[in-house]
Design brief:
By secondary structure, the protein is an alpha+beta fold. The chain has one domain: Aminopeptidase (3-Layer(aba) Sandwich), CATH 3.40.630. Helices cover 43% and strands 18% of the residues. It contains six helices and seven strands, in the order βααββααβαβαββ. The chain has a seven-stranded mixed beta sheet with strand order 1-2-3-4-5-7-6, with helices on both faces. Helix 1 packs across helix 2 and helix 3 packs antiparallel against helix 4.
């Protein structure tokens, strides 16, 4: 089962998968707090769409062959975004997040404050696998190995945050290690920053 870069026409598929698999995430549930399931899913889908489209321009969006897994990442150019780019994202978030705008932005701002600026690096923003396809972590392994091939070829490190200890433990087998203490963003559970040096 191979991985491929998602086409623009497949970004809805990516956002649907992210929304489904992060709906009960122990951290994101504090960013998206609505009690109406359909409304909350619509807000989350809109939120993910903003960043998936950005990653399509500044990094990559990878899908497994059967669309059961996805990895959304940014390249070093993310750190070169201008203020007008950030203002555009803020306007988009305000439009799609509605009542969850304040908490969603608080979470993203908290991540940004703790994000390392140097050295140049890649950034795994999101990785999701359908709950029906998680056996043995096979799809996560395929997604990360594809990314790691790029990292090693370009001799660049990679940064990410994990929202669960289980994920943090699992990705260690692919060269990712803790970098600093868990992140404390006011109003949210701990997030675990990790880092991988190229091999």
């Amino acid at each position: 089962m191979e991985c491929r870069f998602a086409s623009d026409a497949e970004l809805d598929t990516v956002c649907d998968l992210l929304t489904s698999e992060f709906y009960d995430d122990p951290v994101l549930k504090y960013a998206f707090t609505g009690t109406d399931k359909e409304k909350r899913m619509k807000v989350m889908r809109g939120f993910f769409r903003i960043y998936v489209e950005l990653a399509q321009k500044l990094g990559g969006v990878v899908l497994t062959e059967n669309n059961a897994g996805t990895l959304v990442y940014f390249g070093p150019k993310l750190m070169e975004m201008k203020e007008e780019d950030n203002q555009l994202i803020d306007r988009q978030l305000r439009e799609v997040c509605g009542d969850d705008y304040v908490t969603a932005v608080a979470f993203m701002d908290g991540l940004d404050r703790n994000h390392p600026r140097t050295p140049p690096h890649y950034y795994v923003f999101l990785i999701a696998v359908s709950r029906y396809s998680r056996r043995g972590g096979v799809l996560v392994e395929k997604l990360l190995r594809q990314l790691n091939t790029t990292l090693d070829r370009e001799k660049l490190p990679c940064y990410a945050e994990c929202t669960t200890l289980g994920v943090r433990t699992f990705v260690r087998r692919f060269g990712y290690r803790d970098v600093g203490a868990p992140l404390h963003i006011e109003g949210f559970p701990e997030v675990y920053p990790i880092w991988r040096e190229p091999e």
